[in-house]
Design brief:
Length: 790
């Protein structure tokens, strides 16, 4: 059909008077009476519209990432009218915010209760190094976090203590305390640079009269990354811990930061009478921790960051265990560095650790997320450091620190320590014996550190239900009115803080339509709607042919699952075993049906969207919700649709959508979750269950802090008092029936308390991960008030 020659406004004005029996909206009654429907711009786009959708979203997210960096510059340019105290208060808030988004929120074991103790055996001493500056090497541990039942997370490391040259067995007063943080890998070929960094730098520092603590970090090996002892993965240990922790509002970065700060607690306690400088020095992952620790803790006098300084605009390319929710909203490395001013900061522009991805799949191990570490161009590092200098100078500090290009990490340590205090460090003659690093990185110790954090995550998982209950304490279920009022703030928090909302208006939808199917009882159309710049919504609309003029029908939005397409549910020639043409069957029953394309298609192409969105405090559903909001509003304006009777029905990933979208988009009058509803937090954070996403390739599935805020029962609570149903096959591998029934029982109890128990139900059927279409169809007919066929 040729493009309409009239303006859109003219077309809209004529919409109710135009009859197009053979056009994109052909429909009529059984008596042959045509139905007056609007004329729309023809859809002329060709090719794979689902792939085009993902590509458009990618461009939109890239633009948002660039914009947020510019916005940070404005927020971090101090107002000259601010007095110093106001700026200090602002920085204090930023420090607390950083601790929150890396999950370093749990109270640490008080330093006064225990200092550094022997890591094994009765004595901590494992080596004595003679020379101009003699020192002892101790293998130590220190408590960091404590859970119930004696569960403790400890730091472990080497403590180098300078001794009296005249009496090498007698410790002497240190010139300074230094926490030396290696990269994650200390063993194998990938740990060669980090081992050299520790051997040379720690030896110099200790020989110069400094007390040095070298903590052990969680490494990138995969040997221990096994769920329930039966599902091995190739996830680096850091990723395995990250997955569980992220769902529970914690992070492997936060845990290790807590270990560093617990050591600072102990050094600070010992320095109560004799204040001496305290510095952090780090390379690679240790450089990250050194930067974060100095940014959040003003007791740290100086920081040297090596092999870690960049703009973070491409954080999504890095290993997923560096993914921090909302980081880029307020923090690039420049902003973190500025929080160290006016204290000393040295940044070594040294080669980054060489990480070309996780361990490759092997011996049945798979599921790790992609991610690499590459050394950024020198200019990019210089530009980011210049940003930090600009903020520091605007704050009134003449000099933030120094950026020093080096060939290998630790080369500027002498200059750095001279800036910290005036006693120069000694020469390389007293290097740390490499054998002590083998003791530090022994397999039993690495396993203990790993298992402590996994155990702590699992303890938090057990506590999450009670944490959510406290979080929901203000929801008032005494009546429907009080429930509606008291849950509006929870809906806002869910959208803004958990899903992540874009603060920009929807575009005009500019619908484009073309006829796709002509079946005996319905006509099918492809539809494309504008949502945001570069972002569109796309789907298939099925319109029954027996709609009479002026009649408004109930509508069902039928959502496909992972890697699906609208054709999977709405093409009359396709009988997908998961969907069984359920959109077509509903259209044959007289419902108007719309099958939208959701962007979870293309494997890593869509998963990289989640990686890009998370540092902005956003998620894939930050895009999906506006797409659905635009779609349902457009549907509501169609003369064949009753806007008060638009329901949602989704399977699998569409079931995930059924929990999240209607919870926010209240224009959906009901929701049906098929083949997905379960105890969602267990499924995402359990290190024991074979059903757990911790072991799978869906690395985008984890949602920041969801465990402490909204499980599926709480999402259903946001759907209430609208009708809500669960469809569950006994043989569905998503979860066991017990999980589903346990979580759904909370929903049933809520609806009963609200005196509307008939508005919710669950159907169990003897089948797999599939649309059953029996109880759910009856539910739709009942609650959308449309008679079922005989």
């Amino acid at each position: 059909m040729p493009r309409c020659a009239f303006s859109r406004a003219a077309c809209a004005a004529l919409a109710c008077a135009i009859l197009l029996p053979n056009g994109p909206w052909a429909s009529g009654s059984r008596a042959g009476e045509p139905v007056a429907l609007p004329s729309f711009e023809p859809l002329t786009a060709t090719g794979d519209l689902a792939a085009a959708m993902v590509e458009g979203i990618d461009r939109f997210v890239d633009a948002a990432t660039s914009a947020v960096r510019a916005e940070r510059r404005e927020r971090w340019t101090p107002d000259p009218a601010l007095i110093a105290g106001a700026w200090d208060k602002l920085c204090a808030g930023k420090r607390q915010q950083l601790l929150t988004i890396v999950g370093a929120i749990d109270a640490r074991v008080p330093a006064a209760e225990q200092g550094f103790s022997a890591a094994e055996g009765l004595s901590s001493l494992i080596a004595e190094v003679a020379g101009i500056g003699p020192y002892q090497v101790h293998l130590v541990r220190w408590p960091v976090l404590a859970g119930d039942g004696g569960l403790v997370v400890e730091g472990e490391g080497l403590l180098l203590v300078p001794t009296d040259p005249a009496r090498p067995d007698t410790p002497r007063e240190p010139v300074a305390d230094v926490i030396l943080l290696p990269d994650a890998d200390l063993t194998g070929p990938r740990g060669e640079v980090s081992r050299a960094f520790v051997v040379e730098t720690a030896g110099k520092l200790a020989a110069g009269g400094n007390r040095v603590l070298v903590p052990l970090l969680i490494d990138r090996d995969d040997t221990l990354s096994v769920v329930g002892g039966v599902r091995p993965t190739n996830q680096p240990h850091r990723e395995f811990i990250y997955r569980q922790a992220f769902e529970l509002g914690r992070h492997v970065i936060g845990y290790e930061l807590q270990k560093v700060l617990a050591a600072v607690d102990r050094f600070a306690t010992e320095q109560a009478d004799t204040k001496r400088p305290l510095a952090v020095v780090g390379y690679g992952e240790g450089g990250l921790l050194a930067l974060y620790a100095a940014a959040v803790d003003q007791r740290i006098d100086a920081a040297l960051v090596s092999g870690y300084f960049d703009s973070r605009q491409e954080l999504w390319r890095e290993p997923i265990y560096r993914n921090v929710w909302s980081l880029l909203v307020d923090f690039g490395d420049a902003e973190l560095a500025s929080l160290i001013a006016p204290r000393t900061l040295f940044v070594e522009a040294s080669p980054f650790p060489d990480v070309d991805g996780p361990p490759p799949p092997h011996d049945g191990r798979s599921g790790a997320a992609p991610g690499v570490l590459t050394t950024p161009p020198q200019q990019r590092v210089s530009d980011e450091f210049a940003r930090a200098q600009h903020i520091a100078k605007a704050m009134g500090y003449a000099q933030l620190g120094q950026l020093i290009p080096v060939d290998r990490p630790g080369q500027s340590i002498a200059t750095f320590m001279t800036a910290v205090h005036h006693d120069l460090v000694a020469s390389n003659e007293t290097q740390l014996p490499s054998a002590v690093l083998e003791r530090l990185a022994a397999p039993t110790r690495r396993q203990r550190q790993f298992e402590q954090l996994v155990g702590y995550n699992q303890w938090l998982l057990g506590e999450a239900e009670y944490t959510r209950a406290a979080y929901w304490a203000e929801a008032d279920r005494s009546s429907l009115d009080t429930w509606r009022r008291s849950t509006e703030d929870y809906r806002r928090r869910f959208y803004d803080e958990v899903i992540g909302s874009f603060d920009q208006p929807l575009l005009e939808p500019r619908p484009r339509v073309r006829k796709l199917y002509d079946e005996p009882s319905y006509t099918g159309y492809e539809v494309q709607l504008d949502v945001f710049p570069e972002v569109f919504a796309y789907g298939i609309l099925l319109v029954p042919k027996d709609i009479r003029p002026g009649e408004r029908r109930p509508t069902v939005v039928c959502q496909h699952g992972l890697e699906g397409r609208p054709q999977d549910v709405a093409d009359p020639q396709v009988d997908n075993p998961s969907y069984h043409r359920y959109a077509c069957r509903l259209a044959e029953r007289g419902f108007v049906v719309y099958a939208p394309q959701n962007p979870y298609i293309g494997q890593d192409k869509f998963r990289s969207l989640q990686r890009k969105l998370n540092p902005l405090g956003k998620s894939l559903f930050s895009i999906i919700i506006p797409q659905h909001r635009q779609t349902v509003r457009w549907l509501a304006r169609l003369p064949v649709v009753d806007p008060q009777r638009i329901g949602f029905y989704g399977l699998s990933y569409g079931g995930k959508t059924a929990m999240r979208v209607p919870a926010v988009v209240t224009e959906y009058c009901l929701s049906i979750c098929s083949a997905d509803f379960n105890e969602w937090i267990w499924k995402n954070a359990s290190a024991r269950s074979p059903y757990s996403y911790v072991a799978t390739g869906e690395y985008e599935i984890f949602e920041w802090n969801l465990g402490n805020t909204f499980n599926y029962a709480e999402m259903a609570a946001l759907i209430a008092p609208r009708p809500f149903m669960v469809e569950r096959g006994h043989h569905d591998g998503v979860a066991p029936d017990e999980w589903v029934a346990y979580e759904y029982s909370k929903v049933r109890r809520l609806y009963a308390a609200l005196k509307i128990p008939t508005r919710t139900t669950i159907e169990f059927f003897d089948g797999p991960h599939t649309i059953h279409g029996v109880g759910t169809f009856a539910f739709l007919h009942e609650h959308l008030q449309w008679p079922a066929p005989h």
